[in-house]
Amino acid sequence: MDATLPRPGRVNHLELLEAASPTEAETAHQQLHAPGGLWPDPAEDTLARARDHQFWTETLPPAIDWPDAPCAYVHTGAPTTGCGDTSFWARSARSRGWAVYESADTADGIQDAVAQLPG
To answer: Based on the structure, what is the number of domains in the chain?
Structure first.
């Protein structure tokens, strides 16, 4: 739900963010290179966990095409720090053939998604 999705190849969190929102990724990049750089800035975003440059640039394990089980994506449209435009990720899920549930209410979206998954 409103999160980045694995991509083929060797990528890091910052590159995933850049795919969805180049402007947000550039802001993150600049903040991470400032002295004591953390992003998001804990003074500006109290809900997200601030991480250092090492976290944002760590190479993630490769994802061939994941997963081979039924999946769904819940898109609330709420701003999600570190994900960029979550509509980008909802489109990515659709392109993989996943069901995408649009719901402003997180609990309703999850309930709808789980109810429609086979098994």
So the answer is: 1
